[in-house]
Amino acid sequence: MDTSPVPPGAADLALAWSAAALAVWRLTHLLHAEAGPGGVFARLRDLAGTGLAGQALGCFYCLSLWVAAPVAWLLPAGSLGGALGGVPGGLLLWLALSGAAVLLQRLTEPAPLGAPIAAVRADPAAALPWPIAVEDPPRHPGAPTH
């Protein structure tokens, strides 16, 4: 008798979803940002121009939705269980795969170029791309004023 709290097949399903999320990120990144072998993906982006396909290839977030859709369709959405099976489960899986790709992209992209850390510590607002009011830290009662 199996007394494990993990349902049978859960590990296989988790592996399938993890592999699918990585595949969505990889394909999206390949189409969006890499030249590819012989520059094939760079040429594809050039050919796409500024139309719908070009706009999708130019936006990682948008492209991840397009790439995740067929992958979600291939995975067993009904295995999400109960009320999440069928169409709602498939939609949830589609958005989850796109979201996983976006998270992976944000984790792997290099930090934006900006002010050196010493300058940021001296003036935190200087490192931000938008104006922000930076207030002095609160003073303790009786602390000397400038």
Account of the protein in words:
The chain has 146 residues and is mainly alpha-helical. The chain has one domain (11-127). It has helices at residues 10-33, 40-48, 52-58, 60-74, 86-108, 117-122. The model has no long low-confidence stretch (mean pLDDT 78).
Q: How many angstroms separate the termini? A: 75 Å
Cα radius of gyration in angstroms: 23 Å
How many distinct domains? 1
| Number of DSSP-assigned strands | 0
Unreliable runs: none
Number of helices: 6
Report strand %.
Answer: under 5%
Overview features:
146 residues; mainly alpha; 6 helices; 58% helix; elongated; DUF1360 domain-containing protein
SSE layout:
Layout: H1 10-33, H2 40-48, H3 52-58, H4 60-74, H5 86-108, H6 117-122
Helix pairs in contact: 1-2, 1-4, 1-5, 2-3, 3-4, 4-5
Summarize the model shown.
Helices cover 58% and strands 0% of the residues. It has one domain (11-127).
